[in-house]
């Protein structure tokens, strides 16, 4: 307990290499996982495939100055659709029984005309058919994301940022429901686990407040919140469409589909825990980042002005068109964030200064400058428990080019998952981000998140030692505190900027 407190908040700029595990007095000696647990890794189309120029991100990566080093997935990278058998073999070799990936909407419908006529691209369909067949042949359960950040360029064009783009447009909401219906009709025979939208609330934050994602706007909070709202409505419409489209129980578990959202949750901390203004700022950020969206799609509670109260003229409770639209909650957990009232750019409406990286704590850092904070996973799982739904950890991982810290990170986070299950939280699976080194959006290829190193020039894969640690946990189906403690302490990261 004392060690955990010491790790929480250090002086600005400190980087404690030794601040590793965060023991609590009640930690059990061992945690176990059920036989049916989904053990997998995750990727996303744009990050590991080529040939997605007809997307907003395809335009963005060709816009000078937007991507670190001017990198572009069409030059180098994993080229996953050309390496399906090899990548399925990597999953099998590490005993993983599940794989989360995205089917890219623009690969299937590269033009508005093709979408309107429902003329899917034959090569695109064949590629994903091949991947799904290979997974099924290897007894690997697919989880398919239907929108992982990229949108077709006929819905989102970052060259015209002054006009509404992507999820700002009603047209996107309507077309997304059609895409969900068609995808679930086409692939429902192979897929039971569907994720509608990856990390709603992240793309508006990055695209309209920070400016690092298309359309590259800064502090356009009104437009960002409009995106979040349409993502919530789009999710609900997609849920209904999949329930219509997928009638096949591919896994034989008695239901044709598990449809859920994939949310990026952070353990939110006040800059100064003793300052009431910082505490209030942290609560506002936690509400907007972690809770607002889940309240809409589970309870149907629509807080139009994001003020945390349901008393505004446009607010409503238990909207039947939005409530009960998630069969499971997908939780992406990586780190903490710090919110305060002062000390940086204050985001209007949310009325807080938000820090996501380079946090002024003594915790170990990743190559991406995110804090390593395993007990924060317990915090977000306890928070998500309130929604009463099964949970899948749909992403968790770190940038670690030397693979010096991935094993300890994995062990500590999986131990927290096991402990959460012992507390009665219904966690059905864990997907590590990522199977492969991939294109990390505006940061290009520098952050290395993969269990397998990928040579950016040749695409050659090399297993990192940490994947053998994962394999060992999967094989045993249990994890002891002693295993966690035996891992080497966190080493100095290799920052890539
Ligand atoms: O690479 C991303 C992924 O696309 C979404 N979740 C976070 C990952 C790491 O930043």
Question: What do you see in this structure?
Answer:
The chain is α/β, with parallel strands linked by helices and 497 residues long. It has one domain (33-486): Glycosidases (TIM Barrel), CATH 3.20.20.80. It is built from 15 helices and 14 strands. An eight-stranded parallel beta barrel has the order 2-3-4-5-6-7-10-11, surrounded by six helices. The longest helix has 25 residues, at 221-245. The model is unreliable at 1-21 (pLDDT under 50). Bound molecules: 5-hydroxymethyl-3,4-dihydroxypiperidine (IFM).
End-to-end distance: 34 Å
Counted beta strands = 14
By CATH's scheme, which homologous superfamily applies? Glycosidases
- The appropriate CATH architecture is Alpha-Beta Barrel
CATH topology: TIM Barrel
Shape: globular
Q: What fraction strand?
A: 15-25%
Tell me which ligands are bound: 5-hydroxymethyl-3,4-dihydroxypiperidine
Q: Biggest sheet: strands side by side, in what order?
A: 2-3-4-5-6-7-10-11
Structural class: alpha/beta
What are the SSEs and their pairings?
Blueprint: H1 2-8, E1 30-32, E2 38-42, H2 45-48, H3 56-61, H4 84-93, E3 98-102, H5 105-108, H6 112-116, H7 122-137, E4 141-147, H8 170-187, E5 193-198, H9 202-210, H10 221-245, E6 258-270, H11 276-299, E7 328-340, E8 346-347, E9 352-355, H12 374-385, E10 391-395, H13 406-422, E11 427-433, E12 452-454, E13 461-463, H14 465-476, E14 478-480, H15 481-486
Parallel strand pairs: 2-3, 2-11, 3-4, 4-5, 5-6, 6-7, 7-10, 10-11
Antiparallel strand pairs: 1-14, 7-9, 8-9, 12-13
This protein binds 5-hydroxymethyl-3,4-dihydroxypiperidine (IFM).
5-hydroxymethyl-3,4-dihydroxypiperidine binds next to loops.
């Amino acid at each position: 307990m004392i060690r955990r407190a010491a790790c929480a908040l250090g002086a600005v700029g400190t980087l404690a290499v030794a601040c590793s595990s965060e023991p609590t007095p009640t930690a059990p000696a061992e945690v176990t996982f059920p036989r049916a647990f989904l053990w997998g890794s995750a990727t996303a189309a744009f990050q590991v495939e080529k040939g997605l120029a007809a997307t907003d991100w395809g335009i963005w990566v060709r816009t000078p100055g937007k991507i670190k080093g001017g990198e572009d997935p069409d030059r180098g990278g994993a080229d996953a659709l050309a390496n399906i058998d090899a990548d399925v073999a990597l999953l099998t070799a590490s005993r993983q029984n599940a794989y989360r990936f995205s089917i890219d909407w623009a690969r299937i419908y590269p033009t508005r005309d093709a979408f309107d006529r429902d003329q899917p691209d034959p090569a695109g369909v064949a590629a994903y058919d091949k991947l799904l067949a290979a997974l099924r042949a290897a007894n690997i359960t697919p989880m398919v994301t239907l929108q992982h950040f990229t949108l077709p360029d006929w819905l989102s064009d970052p060259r015209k940022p002054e006009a509404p783009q992507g999820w700002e447009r009603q047209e996107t909401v309507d077309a997304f429901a059609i895409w969900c219906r068609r995808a679930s009709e086409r692939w429902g025979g192979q897929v039971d686990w569907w994720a509608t939208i990856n990390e709603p609330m992240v793309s508006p934050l990055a695209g309209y407040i920070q400016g690092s994602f298309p359309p590259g706007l800064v502090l356009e909070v009104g437009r960002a919140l409009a995106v979040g709202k349409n993502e919530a409505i789009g999710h609900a419409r997609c849920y209904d469409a999949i329930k219509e489209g997928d009638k096949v129980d591919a896994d034989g578990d008695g239901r044709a589909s598990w449809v859920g959202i994939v949310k990026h949750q952070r353990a939110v901390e006040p800059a100064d825990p003793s300052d009431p203004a910082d505490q209030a700022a942290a609560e506002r950020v936690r509400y907007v980042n972690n809770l607002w969206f889940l309240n809409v799609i589970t309870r149907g509670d629509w807080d139009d002005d994001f003020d945390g109260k349901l008393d505004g003229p446009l607010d409503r409770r238990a909207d039947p068109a939005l409530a009960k639209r998630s069969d499971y909650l997908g939780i992406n957990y990586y780190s903490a964030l710090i919110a305060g009232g002062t000390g940086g750019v204050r985001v209007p409406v949310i009325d807080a200064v938000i820090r996501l990286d380079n946090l002024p704590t003594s915790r170990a850092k990743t190559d991406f400058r995110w804090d390593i904070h395993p007990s924060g996973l317990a915090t977000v799982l306890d928070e998500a428990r309130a929604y009463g739904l099964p949970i899948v950890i749909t992403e968790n991982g770190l940038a670690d080019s030397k693979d010096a810290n991935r094993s300890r990170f994995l062990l500590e986070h999986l131990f927290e998952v096991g402990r959460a299950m012992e507390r009665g939280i219904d966690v059905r699976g864990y997907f590590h981000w990522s199977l492969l080194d991939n294109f990390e959006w505006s940061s290009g290829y520098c952050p290395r998140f993969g269990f397998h190193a990928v040579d950016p020039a040749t695409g050659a894969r090399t297993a990192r030692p940490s994947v053998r640690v994962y394999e060992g946990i999967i094989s045993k189906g249990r994890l002891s505190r002693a295993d966690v403690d035996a891992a080497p302490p966190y080493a100095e990261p290799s920052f890539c900027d």
